[in-house]
Amino acid sequence: MQTVLDARDHSLLRQHLELLQRELDAQGKHLRGLEDAPLLDRLIEQGRRIFQAERTEVEELETEQSQERSLWRHFRERYRDTFVPPRLKPFLKSSSVFVHSSQEGVQYPGFDKFMGWRSGSQGEIVTLFLRTSEIPEKPESVPPNFFSTYDRKRASFVIERAFRTDLPKGAGGACLVEQIQTLVLDAGNALKTLRWERIQNTPTIAAYVHQGEEGAVLVDGNVGVDATPLGKVGQKILAALGYRVVTIRPKLD
């Protein structure tokens, strides 16, 4: 279940009312030079009352919208993980989204899917999986979990955390494709950069980083897209979305 707030922008209506006010003032100055000034004054005053009533209605709508947003923020922080199994709650600490059970999109037999996202200039999306009761889960295992963010200004999708764990091979890429499609493309946003944060894939790190006497340094030259596991995954993800990899730029923090 998702709650959608009324996000109508009243600024255009406010501009329209201000324009009517200016026109009313101009007409008043013109008409006062004509005959029957008392009648014209009454008409002008009636117009002003109508204008003020519309202005008051706009202000009331803006106040109501502000109250709804405050209430939304309160309930988001207090109840955002109420309907999430306790096993998954630790994987929501780094995000600020509501996560709910989902029967849509990518699904895998033997797993219950939970998903949630928050759009905007700084978007977030979380996908979690938990084994169903029919298949006992190992107490020490980490549930499959994916957490990504999107920077609209930079058109950059950042994979903050991606652990396929017990899901079938290829499931990780499919989940990330769904996240990009949901958070970026379905919202009409652009995608220029796909980035992994805090890479923990040893072969990928070894391909780009050399441990020298003074510490870790980047390998000189172009390693190539197909030279690393994450490079291949990134290529498949972008290809599934209709993009192609132009270059990979490794960076040491």
Name some characteristics of this structure.
elongated, 253 residues, 6-stranded mixed β-sheet, two-stranded antiparallel sheet, single chain, alpha+beta
Describe the structure.
The protein has 253 residues and is an alpha+beta fold. The chain has two domains: 11-79; 86-198, no CATH class. 39% of the residues lie in helices and 19% in strands. It has helices spanning 11-31, 37-79, 171-185, 202-208, 229-240, and strands at residues 100-101, 111-118, 122-131, 145-151, 156-163, 193-196, 209-212, 215-218. A six-stranded mixed sheet has the order 1-2-3-4-5-6, covered by helices on one side. The protein has a two-stranded antiparallel sheet with strand order 7-8. A hairpin with a 3-residue loop joins β2 and β3. α1 runs antiparallel to α2 (37-79) and α3 (171-185) packs across α5. The longest helix has 43 residues, at 37-79. It is elongated. The model is unreliable at 1-8 (pLDDT under 50).
Summarize the structure.
The protein has 253 residues and is of the alpha+beta class. The chain has helices at residues 11-31, 37-79, 171-185, 202-208, 229-240, and strands at residues 100-101, 111-118, 122-131, 145-151, 156-163, 193-196, 209-212, 215-218. It has two domains: 11-79; 86-198, no CATH class.
How widely separated are the two ends?
39 Å
Q: What is the helix tally?
A: 5
Question: Which secondary-structure class do the elements indicate?
Answer: alpha+beta
- Strand proportion, as a percent range, falls in 15-25%
How many structural domains in the coordinates? Answer: 2
| Low-pLDDT residue spans | 1-8
Q: Tell me the strand order in the biggest sheet.
A: 1-2-3-4-5-6
Question: Count the strands?
Answer: 8
Major beta sheet, specifics? Answer: 6 strands, mixed
SSE run: HHEEEEEHEHEEH
Q: Please tell me the overall pLDDT.
A: 78
Q: Give the helix proportion (percent range).
A: 25-40%
The geometry reads as elongated
What is the gyration radius calculated from CA atoms?
A: 28 Å
